[in-house]
Specification:
3 helices, 7 strands
Length: 151
């Protein structure tokens, strides 16, 4: 089953790939590896902002991380690479949170679980989930990716 067929089966429509907010490329390919820049969480066209542990619930944070994952897929699609994904190698998750919030791994599961739902076993990946004091545009979550590509 193709990735597009799987997304249709899941009832998922990818968002439009977001334009960069600074001086960088959304996707860079080196050999058979794609590096996807950090993606911000847009839900229903609106950026999810705030801090976990203060004004963003765990559930909303997970939804935001899933939205970041969808944007990673959208960036791969825009680069013509979505059907060439061989394996999700690594996700890097950044969670804007208060000093006492310690559920960053649970938040980033929103993106990790999406990759498994879409790709099955090849969606399993290495990962980091880091708490930070602030993210660009006051985003609640940001996720980047390293992706192995088929030849």
């Amino acid at each position: 089953m193709s990735v597009h067929e799987r997304l249709r089966e899941m009832g998922v429509e990818l968002p439009d790939a977001a334009a960069p907010v600074a001086s960088y490329q959304p996707v860079v390919v080196n050999g058979h590896t794609a590096y996807v820049s950090g993606q911000l969480p847009f839900v229903d066209g609106n950026l999810v902002t705030g801090k976990l542990g203060k004004d963003v619930s765990l559930e909303r944070g997970q939804e935001a991380a899933r939205a970041c994952g969808l944007m990673i897929l959208a960036q791969l699609e825009a680069a013509g690479l979505l059907e060439r994904v061989s394996h999700m190698v690594k996700l890097g998750g950044f969670v804007a949170s208060t000093p006492d919030f310690t559920d960053q791994p649970k938040v980033v599961n929103g993106a990790s679980d999406l990759m498994f739902e879409v790709f099955g076993h090849p969606g399993k990946h290495a990962r980091s989930a880091v708490g930070v004091p602030v993210l660009p545009l006051d985003a609640a979550v940001e996720v980047d990716a390293i992706v192995a590509l088929k030849a």
